[in-house]
Specification:
The protein folds into two domains: about 220 residues, YjeF N-terminal domain (Rossmann fold); about 250 residues, 3-Layer(aba) Sandwich (UDP-N-acetylmuramoyl-L-alanine:D-glutamate ligase), CATH 3.40.1190.20. About 40% of the residues lie in helices and about 15% in strands. The strands form two sheets. Strands 1-9-18-17-16-15-14-13-10-11-12 form an eleven-stranded mixed beta sheet, with helices on both faces. The radius of gyration is 25 Å and the shape is elongated. This is Bifunctional NAD(P)H-hydrate repair enzyme. Its cofactor is Mg(2+); K(+).
Length: about 475
């Protein structure tokens, strides 16, 4: 599991650690990690010795990290030039170290045009709002130079706690983050500015009372969650999932969701609807019956019959996944159920549920996924390039980074709903079913893409191998 912590908690952990270390030791740890990544980037591009690095230096510790890292690089034969956004407030110790190592402080941004690497140390995790004044000018000049950009802890101009981008901001190729990940590196639009994120352990520790803001499941975490049949298992003990999806107008949604559910680890699948799914999947049990979870909404339509099917499922006492058309038909006020609910909106559907714009959702995804979970007393899967999962009883959010743009294809959401429903029926909690389901969904896309352009049916076909790879 990878974790991201709030800025206030990072600051507290840094203070506690600095009290136990010699003065300046923590910054030296960060600078060494930063210089190591910078040297790796230069080596990959050709050579460390004789290369040219430009530092964009702001104020405070972020600029100090950049300056001390620059001094280490200068000691390895790199020509290092530092541009100071605010010369009167630059880190004095870092400036002295850079000069002593042979680095130069310059005022002419033309050095960026000759740079093999630009290090962004303008603003750190305490920055608020977009870049302004000289900070914005230097960032723009760095982008225009075409040199790769390495960000210190967080691309300047990104809100560390939320990933919001409210003005000009650096777009990095690589970001080195220290001690813990920052939420803004996992949440769009900030995450799209971070490039490849490299983690440097500087020894920060967080007490049990301090919870991370974000969790990012890794393959071993998903492996531990996936249900596995035992020697005494039978089809009913493994779980039965029901699907009230598809319609005469949208039969494909039923086939995709059912196909995914069949490959989600459950013992049986029941289908309730007008689509002939048995011809394609003879394993399916047609009609109603006892289930451990329901999936409703995919391809449901929005007529009176669709409303009836949705309300019938919501009236049950088992967990329910509501997707697609079902989201458009949900009551706009919190509805009471005796069992958990999972909703799976994209930005447009989330906007309709909260009566805001899709642009607001995309600009503040962390804020709105939490608001949805509270407003609808549901576990929320806010779909996107980085899918967020939030529950109604906690402020902690999970993020799925194991995916790709190939999932942006018609029917992909139907597959995801089927996977999550199957995992729910198999005994996972709503939070875990949504999290593991999003990871599996992403894994199917990565596998399917190996053969070329991907259709949703390819995701269904890739599920068994994706499951196998995670277990192995």
């Amino acid at each position: 599991m990878r974790y991201a912590h709030a800025v206030a908690d990072v600051r507290a952990a840094e203070r506690e650690l600095m009290a136990r270390l010699p003065e300046g030791a923590l910054m030296q740890r960060a600078a060494f990690g930063l210089a190591t990544v910078a040297a790796d980037m230069l080596r990959d591009a050709g050579s460390v010795y004789g290369s040219r690095v430009a530092l964009l230096v702001g104020v405070g510790d972020n600029g100090g990290d950049a300056l001390y890292a620059g001094a280490l690089l200068a000691g390895r034969g790199v020509a290092v030039h530092a541009l100071l956004a605010d010369p009167d407030r630059a880190h004095e110790g870092g400036l002295s170290a850079l000069r002593d190592a042979g680095g130069r402080i310059v005022a002419d941004a033309a050095v960026l045009d000759q740079a093999d690497l630009v290090v962004d140390g303008l603003l750190g995790i305490g920055g608020r709002g977009g870049l302004r004044g000289e900070f914005a000018r230097l960032a723009e000049a760095a982008h225009e130079s075409g040199a790769p950009i390495l960000a210190v802890d967080l691309p300047s101009g990104i809100e560390a706690d939320t990933g919001e981008v409210s003005g000009p901001a650096v777009r990095a190729d690589v970001t080195v983050t220290f001690g813990t990940h920052k939420p803004g590196l996992f949440v769009d639009p900030g995450a799209s500015h971070a490039g490849i994120v490299e983690f440097v352990d500087i020894g920060l520790e967080f007490p049990p009372s301090v919870e991370p803001v974000l969790e990012n499941l890794q393959v071993q975490d998903v492996r531990a969650l996936l249900p596995a049949p035992g020697r005494s298992s039978h089809k009913y003990s493994r779980g039965v999932v029901g699907l009230a999806v598809g319609s005469e107008r949208y039969p494909g949604a039923a086939l995709l969701a059912v196909g995914a559910a069949l490959r989600s680890g459950v013992g049986a699948v029941r289908y309730s609807g007008p689509v002939d799914v048995v011809s394609s999947y003879p394993e399916v049990i047609a009609g109603g019956g006892k289930v451990q979870a329901w999936v409703v909404g995919s391809g449901l339509g929005r007529d009176d019959e669709a409303v009836r099917r949705l309300l019938n499922v919501l009236a049950t006492d088992v967990p329910v996944v509501v997707d697609a058309d079902g989201l458009r038909l949900l009551p706009r006020k919190a509805f009471e159920r005796s069992a958990p609910t999972i909703i799976t909106p994209h930005a447009g559907e989330a906007a309709a549920l909260l009566d805001v714009t899709a642009e607001q959702i995309e600009g503040q995804r962390l804020e709105y996924v939490r608001r949805l979970a509270q407003s609808y007393d549901a576990t929320v899967v806010l779909k996107g390039p980085l899918t967020l999962i939030a529950g109604p009883q906690t402020s902690r959010v999970r993020v799925n980074t194991h995916a790709g743009p190939v999932l942006a294809t018609a029917g992909s959401g139907d597959v995801l709903a089927g996977i999550i429903g199957g995992l729910l029926a198999g005994g996972l909690s709503p939070y875990d079913a949504a999290s593991a389901g999003a990871y599996l969904h992403g894994a199917t896309g990565l596998l399917a893409a190996r053969s070329g352009p991907v259709a949703a049916g390819d995701l269904v076909a890739s599920l068994p191998l994706a499951w196998h790879n995670i277990q192995e």
